[in-house]
Amino acid sequence: MSKLQTEIKWGVVWATAIFLLLCFEYFAGLQELPYLDWGMWVDLLGDVALPALAVGLGLRQKRDQDWEGSMSWRQGFISGLYMTLVALPLSLAYIWAFVEIVNPNYFAVLVDFSVATGQSTQDAAQAYFNLRTYLFQTALNVVAFGVVLSAVFSLLLKTK
């Protein structure tokens, strides 16, 4: 288990950072009209920057502390995938907790905004903005970002 301590740590950091960003948006009022547009930009930025920071810093720590400064692309990529495997179930649990406990009106606001701005019909918005769809999108995003970020940062941080 201690072999994967770094991956577990940074996978937890990744998922927790996204959850805390969602909570920040909510408590700052960025998930309510008229500030929903700002919240979406903050969310987009955070959904890219926070996983990148977690994977990048995690792989750097893995290389420098666990592998004594020497890391191949393959080693880094596999390590990043382990971080992703840790972040995935935690992210799903955090999303569930957020929309069920912290902000139960999350989807209703998104539906109202989507309809009010003409981006969607009521039925289409309700079919799109729901917990099942959001969990599916979260899972896809975590896996996709995990694979891409692991590959990129492994390339940037490899030493052999």
Describe the fold and architecture.
The protein has helices at residues 5-27, 36-66, 73-102, 106-116, 122-128, 131-157. With 160 residues, the protein is mainly alpha-helical. It has one domain. α2 crosses α6. The mean pLDDT is 93.
Element layout with pairings:
Blueprint: H1 5-27, H2 36-66, H3 73-102, H4 106-116, H5 122-128, H6 131-157
Helix pairs in contact: 1-2, 1-3, 2-3, 2-6, 3-6, 4-5
Percent helix: over 70%
Strand content: under 5%
Shape: elongated
Low-confidence stretches: none
Radius of gyration: 18 Å
Q: Classify the oligomer.
A: single chain
Intertermini distance: 25 Å
Largest sheet: none
Instruction: Give the overall average pLDDT.
Output: 93
The domain count comes to: 1
Structural class: mainly alpha
Count of alpha/pi helices:
6
Count all strands and give the number: 0
Order of helix and strand elements from N to C terminus: HHHHHH
